[in-house]
Structures are given as C-alpha cells and as structure tokens.
Amino acid sequence: MIKIKDLHFTYPGAQQATLNGVNLEIQQGEFVAIIGNNGSGKSTLCKTLNGLIPNFIVGDGSGRVEYNGEDLWNMPIGKIAKRIGYVYQDFENQIVCPTVLEDAAFSCLNYGFEDYMEKGIDALNLCDLLAKKDDYIWQLSGGQLHLLALAGALALAPDVLILDEPIAQLDPAHAKQMYDILKDLNEKHGKTIIVIEHHSEYIADYCQTAILLHEGRVLWKKDARAALRECQQLIDCHIYPPQITVAAQLLQDQKTGVKSAVLPTTFSEGKVFFQAMDSLVQADVIHTHNDVEKEIAVELTDITVQYRSVKGDPKTLFDNFNLNIFKGDKIALIGSNGAGKTTLMKLLVGLLKPKRGKIKMNGVDVTSYRAEQLASHISLVYQNPEQMLIKESVRADIEFAMKERKVANYQEQAQELIALFDLEAIAENDGRLLSGGQMRRASLAIGIALEPPILLLDEPTANLDIATRQEIIRTLELLKDKIETVIIATHDMQLVCEFATRILVLSSGEVICDGSREFVFSNQAVRKQAGIEPPAIYQMAEQLGGCAYTVNEFVQAFQKEQCV
User: Which of 212, 213, 341, 559 has the least CB density, counted as fewest CB within 10 Å?
Assistant: First the structure.
C-alpha cells in the first residue's frame, strides 16, 4: 500500500540529511508505531507521506514514495488529503472553527461536499465527540481537542491516518480513550494507523508492528512485542522499552535459571514472568503529609478564578482555593486534563488574575503585579517551548530578558547558560527550527536567565526520547544552586517518582491530595478520582504484592529476597 524506496531528504542549510536512504513498506490495515530518538527523522518521514514534503517544506530530496502504486510526490495535495489524514504534534493549529461540528466538517466544506455536515457528524461519532457537536472549541478539554483534530482529518474518510505523538499531552484516561478509538478505527473500519510514539507501553498494548528509525535510516520493522524486547538496542537508540521489559531483562541477566524466558511487554506477561522468580519483597509504605514547618515562598488565599463563557454562566475553576508553597519544595503537580494545573501556573506568574483572593510571595502581596514585574521572582517554561523562541538565534533568546532589564554582563551570563545546557553547537541557530529536545533545553535556559528563586515547568518531558529526558532531569539537578523551588506540571509519572519530594493532586480545581509519592499512590480513591496512574513498574509490583516506584527499586526488591 505505502512503499518508500531509497528516500533522502535534507533541510535547507542542514549539515547532514534527515532521511538517509529510507526503504519501507506499510500494508493496508496495519497499526504501526514509528519509534526513534529525537532528531531521527520520524516526523520528517511522515511529512513525506502527507504532501507537506515536498509541496510546502522545501529541501533537497530524492527517492520515491508510493501510495497504491502512485507517486505521492507528484500527486496533488488535495488528492493526498482524501487518502492520508494527518494529526500533528501541535494539533491545536489544525482547529480553525469556533464550534465543534463546524471544525469537524470544515475540510469537507472546503472540498464542496454537499453532505459536509453529515460527514462531520459521522467523524465526531467515530471519535466519541458527538455529544459535544454544538459546543465551542474553547469549552473542550485538551484530550477532546486532540480528538477533534482527529475527527477533522477523519471526515474526509482517508484510508490512512498518521498521528504524531497522539498522547504526549494527555492524562492516562484520555490517552487510553485515544488509543481505544484508534484501535476501533483499525479493526472495525479498516484504517491503516501510523503513530509516532515514545510511550512504549501503549505500543505493546495496541500496535501490531514497530519501525525503528535511527539517523535517518530504518534499522528494522518487527512485530511490536518482539520489537520492544530488543531492550539494549532500543536503549542505545535512546528509546524507552516498557519498564516491565527492562526490569525483566535486568533480572534475567542476574539469574541464570531464566535465561531462555521470553521477556514480558505487558502486565499479563509480566505477572507470569515475575511469579516464576522469587517473590517480591514488600517495601514499607510510609503514609506522610508534607507538614514539616518550612518558610513559605508563595501563599494563595481564598482564590477564585472564572473564565468568561460565550454562552451560559462564567466557568469557575478555582473557588476559595488555598495553597502554601514552601522554599525548597520540589513539587509535581498532577491530575487529569482540565484539572487546573496550567491555570495555577498562570496565576503564579501573573498571566491570569483571580476574581477574588490574594497571592503573596515572600510575604508581599503580588496579586495585582503584572507578569513582567514578577519575572525576576518566578519563571514559567511553557509546555510548547517554541512559544519562548522569538528572536533570530538561541543566543539572542537567552540574552533577551537580561538585556531588556539592563543586567550587567548579560552576554557572559548568557554564554554560561549556553554551556550549562549544552547549546554551544546551535547557539547561533534559529531556535524555532531546532528539534524538540533542543528547543526544551533552550527554553529552560531562557526560563532561568534571570535566576528566579521559583521555576515552573509545564510538561517538561513531553515528546522527549530517553536521552533528552535524562538531560532535562540532570539539568534540574544542576539548577539546585540557582533555583530554590521547582514546580512541575506533568503526566509523566516516572518523572514524578524520580524528581518530586511533594506531590499535589488536582481535580476540578481542588487539591485532593498533598504528600509524598507513597502517600499519594497508595490512595486508590485519589487515583480513581483524579484519573492518574502510577508508573507501570509500580503497578506491576502492586500486582505482585510488593511496592516499587522505579525499575531499580523493583530489581533491588528481588535481590533482597535472594539474600533473606
């Protein structure tokens, strides 16, 4: 169905090719995951399938891309769109109409279909959004907006659907909903599904095959579960295998009795595999609250936030909300999409003002302060790092805030940040043209340029491969001497367990749980209400009657059992 032959592509001014001799076939009805490190060419490859390359993105390209025997690169873009639908990583840019049904039907209206509304309704029904058809798009949650972007692509009834990082910004409940819908489209409606995905657990549960891309080449295409068992090769390519698979590999390397066992990739396989070994040691679960007396950095008192609504009453998100943030806190802010995480961060940096209540920093009432007045006290690194890249080079972006505030020796300080964040090789490049991981490092450097005592990070590890994610975590450790307090809003529960000393669980604008990882994840009612799931390795340990928050803790628990 899709056949790629000796495909090369180089972006203008690039030192090396992004695609370097890709040969690949994808059959009708496959559900395939494309995996690879940041910069391996995943998104570029998919853009050669939907006509963006070479019709809108210029560069040096050669080779052949076929769809059912026709040359895609010589096919009109309008014809491609009816055959191959695409949902971008920045999917919100695909949503262009004010109401849900109008947006879903927009592409069909553009093609002049008389039944464009009916086609929009059919697409919404397939994406479980029909009940929202008359809503305005700003009334939808992040997960629903992502599904609306999918419905817009689906309305033209393409045979192939490509989704770039479909769950990167979604909570576990919405992520599962997205993949359940994709599975339904694949199995019941015969759609060929291609996803670019970093979350290997979802690949194991939903995908049929996996394609490994590295340095612009296809290393292999394999059955999805067999692919995920290639632990060392995936790690060498900076890709996370499932935590369960990694733990099994480590234990298998240590225990000679199970060398021939097939590595598990799912919970059901994991339970069989690990039960064949020694039982897992039950760790002591400490139920603690973060009630040690500390100096207050930020105090929110009786905060009420309302959003205007085009129809109906204003939406109240926070109602008499109270929270203390202490100096030295390393906070993970978790909860489902729409729980209030981003709203809280906007309140703290002055981008949003409460209708009622007070915000104090170090005892000073800053409720009425403008964002620029707070910039030297608190900084927000946005979920989409490209929003922080506005100048002609990374260096200019890092220098900008210091230069505007006439900071002495701002150029020297910028150079120190460039070195700290390993940006020397790209310091003179336009930041908006960098890879996702490079943009995140650059946005972090911009965020701490004024050395604010409080740093806020919105989804800092979204869309990142294992190497870049580890770089971000290492960087946060390096910042301990520069930044007193860090708050991270995230769906990445591995990051939560590795980084946070305090976890705040938000649900419908309320903090429903506040404490350590042991306190939060052991509370089943909180997990259900907030729609959160602890890391896969924690859930595996839980099923085995133990307790572990990281792969290393899980493996060590087995080692302890051997010593008993």
Answer: 559
